[in-house]
Amino acid sequence: MEQPLIITACTNRKSAPLEERLQASDLPLGSLEEIAGTWNAWVKQHHFRLPASELYAGRGVAEAKIAADFCDGQQWFVSAGLGLVSAMEDVAAYDLTVAGAGSNCVASKVLRPPFRSKDWWSAVSRKRRPARKLSRLIAANPNSLIILALPSSYLAMVADDLKELSSAGFQRLRLIGPPEANIPAFLRPYWMPYDDRLDGPRSSCRGTRSDFPQRAARHFLEEIWARSNTAGSTRHAKAVADLLASFPYPAIPKRRQLDDSELLVVIKKIWDRAEGQSSRMLRILRDEERIACEQGRFKILFYRAKKQLGTI
User: CB neighbours of 105 closer than 8 A, spacing ≥ 6?
Assistant: First the structure.
């Protein structure tokens, strides 16, 4: 079997300034097809500056790169704004997401039909020239193991695309990241049972929920695939379960509950300590300040603090 493909999610953090008129907040209201057409036209108008692997920032991207380097595999990104993107492909800095309630969530722009992320993915993929589909990429690499390391929201976005795989294509899938409850039934035979024990005291790769899929993918390649790179999904899943069986779950810390105004004050207070980095700040809030904060809520408050501090 040839070297694996590591397919993971893009990130909101970018290493370059956002391009003008390449933010979902600037889109007009309209149908999903109209919005996708407008967005695609905007993307085509911009100069692509950096390879995707350099534009996307954060630990998740770094972990995915380490995983790809370990197995000498290809790295790809699932992007809500650009579709399927190779790590080596030059891309522009943009801001569009299908999740959350921020100003750059494209769902707020779609009037009809009711917004579904899988419909958006289909539209964005079709409008790329040539059209890019996850199922086509997998079919074009018939001898490679496919490591699909995605959070639940991104897996839901691309799941219908995967329905087009052949039987042989499914056999080469290894789904890593989402909990089993969020895996569609037709994909469960290819799910690797990673859970919170990867963040327990015996784990050497603890981190945040946002980079869990990439950390788990790296662990899978280094600890499971490296020892049995020709095994099927059932044996791989059992190897993961056997390894994690000796890992205790992490202790659940007690954290303070603050309302939005109180939390905003704390975020601005620790801004310099976190060097203005959202992922670092979230860790400080949770681990050092012992404050409870759900990631989607934190993203909105972080952006608000950024505006108030004049760093945008």
Answer: 24, 97, 98, 99
